[in-house]
Amino acid sequence: MPELPEVQTVVDDLYRSNLEGATIQKARIFWPRIIDGRSPKVFRRLIQGKTIGTIWRRAKFIVFDLIPDMHLLVHLRMTGHLHLADANLPRGPHEHLLLDLTDRRQLRFHDPRKFGRFYLVADTDELIGGLGPEPLDKRFTGRMLAQRLASRQRMLKPLLLDQTFIAGLGNIYVDEALWQAHLHPTQTAARLTTEEIQRLYRAIRKVLRSALTHGGTTLGRGQTTFYSVSRRTGRNRDQLNVFRRIHQPCPRCRTPIQRLVVGQRSSHVCPRCQPAP
Question: Which residues are catalytically annotated?
């Protein structure tokens, strides 16, 4: 599933595509369940004639501010992709929603597994108001992280994946951050020392910034893997230290990487650098 760096890469591509100021003439929906909370008929009626304003990201949501009074939120889920195409090009087999724009372009949503969702709301807080802090925001500090961890008796891995705790992290970057911080995914959050919390804080920001610099992480090939609006794949795979590197040597100590299941999620650790509690 695309995480913060991948979603931000998509938003950056959309911004560079000069979508802001374009007007939506029509919505074409070929998979009704892609629309969450409204019927396709109502969705088409409400979005027609709206002009695209600011495009931004919150957690793993892509947010289009629609002028004058609505917001379109898109969640890519596991295999969703947004791309721009000429309106005359035939629709592809996995393109489930098309937005016709006044400049003869179409914003198309491609999703082989059909997990992605579109939300049309008057107030973004309906969906994203309860999310946790953005980990790269300047207001997110080591002290804030310490305060949020202090009373949590959950294991670190499931807690860091919880979007109400920190927004935007997923399996890849939690595993990478925990390795950077020398922390085991089953360690209890409230038992971290001040030094461990600072290591975790720095590690989260480091792995996210690296991934943003490299345009996100693309794993494997094919239609279900991540690529940006401009169809570029992410280059961050070569920067990964533990994620999906089972049995390969740890870059720090050469111990073979192991795979664990923590909170029903696959996790990757170095058993020497990240000793179990």
Answer: 2-3, 60, 265
